[in-house]
Amino acid sequence: MSPAITYTVTAFEHWILSYLYVKIMPSFNRSVLLELPIPATMDPDQLMSCGQMMLKFVADYWKTIENRSVLPSIQPGYLRPLLPSHAPEKPEQFSQIINDLESTIMRGVTHWHSPHFYAYFPTGNSYAAVCADILSAGIACIGFSWIASPSCTELEVIVMDWLAQALDLPEFFLSTGNGTASEATLVTLLAARSKIFCQMQKKDPNITLGKLLDQLIVYCSDQAHSSVDKATLIVGCKIRKIVSDDNCVMKAAQLKQAIIEDRAKNLIPFFLVATLGTTATCAFDDIAGLGKVCQDENIWLHIDAAYAGSAFICPEYRYLFDGIEYVDSFSFNPHKWMLVNFDCSAMWVKDRTYFINAFNVDPLYLKHDYQNVAPDYRHWQIPLGRRFRSLKLWFVFRIHGISGIRKYIRKHIELAKLFINYIENDKRFEIVFPSTTLGLVCFCLKNGSNELNEKLLKSLNEDKRIYLVPSMVKGRFILRFAICSYLTEVKHVDYAWTVINEITTKLLTKT
Ligand SMILES: *Cc1c(COP(=O)(O)O)cnc(C)c1O
């Protein structure tokens, strides 16, 4: 039979074929197949005993995390000589893997939850979220549509409403969870592109997306997160960075000027990403001013509040999102500062039509009877598959309550203030780009050159007692001190200050 001829096996033929295989074909032996000793992957007893070992390992890790060097002392490629060059041919014991962890994996871990970790921004963690993730992994459903696992969609709708209420977001927002803030920026950008394309098509039915793309331009501040660049690269349109003011804040006047210049070049501004809590200095763009411009100019306003968004759970910080009524979409990361482990990003949009437009692909096998009454979250994201992420939020809300989350945020902000106090009372240092200090403090050596500040940071990180990362802002090399760990207490900030003090003294007497 030539391979080009398609051939349908009828039930009878199928029966004959399997009969022949079983009876005659020596290589296909039913009894052998049944006896093959494949280990039971979903053995509940194994889950209990191995799970206990794993939990004990993590619990011991949390207990000792403070005593571990926050940065590992290894070089790139360290792991290869420690592991076999091939995957094991024969199965191994779970306990053996656990025994190997310290000498292999743990040697190369940067301890993000160490109380001596002050780099980047925090990433959340809690026993509540970890336990919820065990359930998510145990159920292991793929909740791309309502019918694909109803509680997955329904819990998400509910906890996103809880979250919106806890942050006091405007009621008109419809919500969805995402993996990351970067994904949220990308999908809203695609939705905004779909919106402007629909609008332009009404004016000119012959316009193609290809032609339009040449004219579309995205705005963000020069302080926006790199994920905005990435999103525009993927979508294939131009981007213009609006120059922020001396405090790193993007203002309406600069946006307006850019729009005038770009419209004169026949470009079409259609999307602005404003940031509440920039990554470098935690600056807050003026969304009330920017929002008015966006409204007048038919520009979709997306807010990236990846880090700072969690602070809005405290009423005293809500003034920071003044102007939220102008916003078309808003996202923040509970996985940064709300006790939820990675990944869990929340996003709200005013009008979901354009999401459905941008992503609606409807093959028959994904259709179901409830499409019009329940959201199918696959239309809100790039991948089809979707984890049961809302469990983490649900557990965290229930274990800590809104009051507990507020306490945690406020404590971090108080610890940051303690650090500011140290810096301000030492003549060698200065606070730079002071905006609303949440848990991030930016500082540097007063009158110190970039080179000197770079040396200070290098010495601190080579010392490895604490870990900070720098930032280059408006030509200045600055040090960022972010309160990150749930475990960080006053004594740790005191200790960090002692380390910084000691290393600075050493550095300044040398130079
Ligand atoms: C951390 C951060 C991001 C990236 O978040 P992911 O969830 O890792 O994509 C985006 N924007 C800002 C302002 C951030 O601080």
Structure description:
- This protein has 511 residues and is an alpha/beta fold.
- Helices cover 43% and strands 12% of the residues.
- The strands form 2 sheets. It has a 7-stranded mixed sheet with strand order 1-7-6-5-4-2-3, with helices on both faces.
- Helix 15 (450-463) crosses helix 16 (490-510).
- The longest helix is centred in the C-terminal third of the chain and has 35 residues, at 390-424.
- The chain is globular, with a radius of gyration of 27 Å.
- The structure holds pyridoxal-5'-phosphate.
- Pyridoxal-5'-phosphate is lined by residues 121, 180-182, 225, 227, 275, 278-279, 304, 306-307, 333, 345.
Strand content: 5-15%
The shape, in one word, is globular
Bound molecules: pyridoxal-5'-phosphate
> Number of helix segments?
16
CATH fold node name of the domain at 134-395: Aspartate Aminotransferase, domain 2
Would you tell me the structural class of the helices and strands? alpha/beta
| Major sheet attributes | 7 strands, mixed
CATH superfamily of the domain at 134-395: Type I PLP-dependent aspartate aminotransferase-like (Major domain)
